[in-house]
Amino acid sequence: MKESVSTEPFRPADDVTHHVGYLLKRAQAALRGAMDKVLREHGLTVPQYATLELLAQHPGMSNADLARATFVTRQSGNVVLRGLQEAGLITRPATADHGRARPARLTDEGQARLAAVQGAVYAVEQRMVEAIPPQRVAALLADLERIAVTLED
């Protein structure tokens, strides 16, 4: 069945709690709360977990790249990296080979901590996705990507 497309210009709902932005923020806050809860049991924060995930996929990322990818400032990203390094979960060279970038990598302990928490985090995402009819998940992902790209311009 084809969905009809309105030719009317978009008009936000009269009730702010029904606006797209409000509902996106509510969903994001609920996701953050659920992730905080499961990560706390493993001694991690959401930015720390995101950093471990990214470094597992892309070893050697710089602080600036990690900060952008985890939605924190460079200063906050540096605090996250220092905390992970002090906990023995990542390693970074004491000085940069060139420029200011000090590429980070997971330690064996970092890989183990990430593996221990992934199941709990993925279960949160599974709960979230199960609230959506399966045939609509791909469209939702595409819509969210288009929203992000549009607003980043």
Provide the CATH topology: Arc Repressor Mutant, subunit A
Largest sheet: 2 strands, antiparallel
What is the radius of gyration? 19 Å
Low-confidence stretches: none
The tally of domains stands at 1
Number of strands: 2
- Provide the structure class: mainly alpha
The helix count comes to 6
Helix content: 55-70%
Order of helices and strands: HHHHEEHH
Shape: globular
Protein name: MarR family transcriptional regulator
Pfam family, one: MarR_2
Organism: Streptomyces siderophoricus
Domain HTH marR-type: 17-149
Describe the structure.
- This is MarR family transcriptional regulator.
- Pfam families: MarR_2.
- InterPro entries: HTH_MarR-typ (IPR000835), MarR/SlyA-like (IPR039422), WH-like_DNA-bd_sf (IPR036388), WH_DNA-bd_sf (IPR036390).
- Residues 17-149 form the HTH marR-type domain.
- The protein has a two-stranded antiparallel ribbon with strand order 1-2.
- It is 62% helix and 3% strand.
- It has one domain: Winged helix-like DNA-binding domain superfamily/Winged helix DNA-binding domain (Arc Repressor Mutant, subunit A, Orthogonal Bundle), CATH 1.10.10.
- Helix 1 packs across helix 5 (108-130), helix 2 packs across helix 5 and helix 3 (63-69) packs across helix 4 (74-86).
- The chain is mainly alpha-helical and 153 residues long.
- The relative contact order is 0.11.
